[in-house]
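Good day; I would like, with your permission, to put a structural problem before you. What I wish to show you is a protein chain and, alongside it, a tokenised description of its three-dimensional fold. Thank you for your consideration; the sequence and its tokens are set out here:
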Amino acid sequence: MARLLLVEDDPGVAELLALALSSLGHETVIAADGAAGLARATASGFDVMLLDIMMPGIDGFETCRRLRLGSQLPVIMLTARSDPVDIVAGLEVGADDYVTKPVEPRVLDARIKALLRRTQAAPEASVLVVGDLRIDPDAFAAFRAGTPLALSATETKLLIELARNVGRVLTRRELLTRVWDYGYAGDSRLVDAAIQRLRAKIEPLPAEPTYIQTVRGTGYRMDRP
């Protein structure tokens, strides 16, 4: 069972979704808007935030951006729009995944469980060193030139997978399976947006990457600079 923070401004939708998630074994706390969601998120004990994008006042994008300033709480965006621009925007501000509305509770349940598996799974031992990057899977932490990197759980898992396969091209489908735990032909935009966020944090010049190389039409490869 997961303890969920549902940030949704429509009380009817929120109550129905909370009830459905309860029947699937989850505990759900509802916040009526972005400000309330941020205030609630400061409390300990939540496993995942379910965040609606279209809200009055502080929308989901801004809520996620502010959350990421001080929290790595996993976030699944709930969006009524499947426009690629909106989806990528959500991922770029730090969301870990997204589900389009109307939400099918069992699909959301599967996404929650997949997200928890990759954030709570016991990592393999041994420290990985690539250039001035040091990745400690045991501690689920990464450093550049000795300075801790502020990575989300998904970004850390992605970095670990790339560092374990230095010099090898990993396809987007492989990364979806290994990092997001999706065994289907999922949305490659998840991978591309996460790579973009990761480059911004580990590359000296993100526009001219030295660590993570794009292999056009295939996927990504980590190189030793």
Summary: Residues 128-222 form a domain with the Arc Repressor Mutant, subunit A fold (CATH 1.10.10.10). Helices lie at 11-23, 34-41, 60-67, 84-92, 105-120, 153-163, 172-179, 188-202. The mean pLDDT is 89. DSSP finds eight helices and twelve strands in the chain.
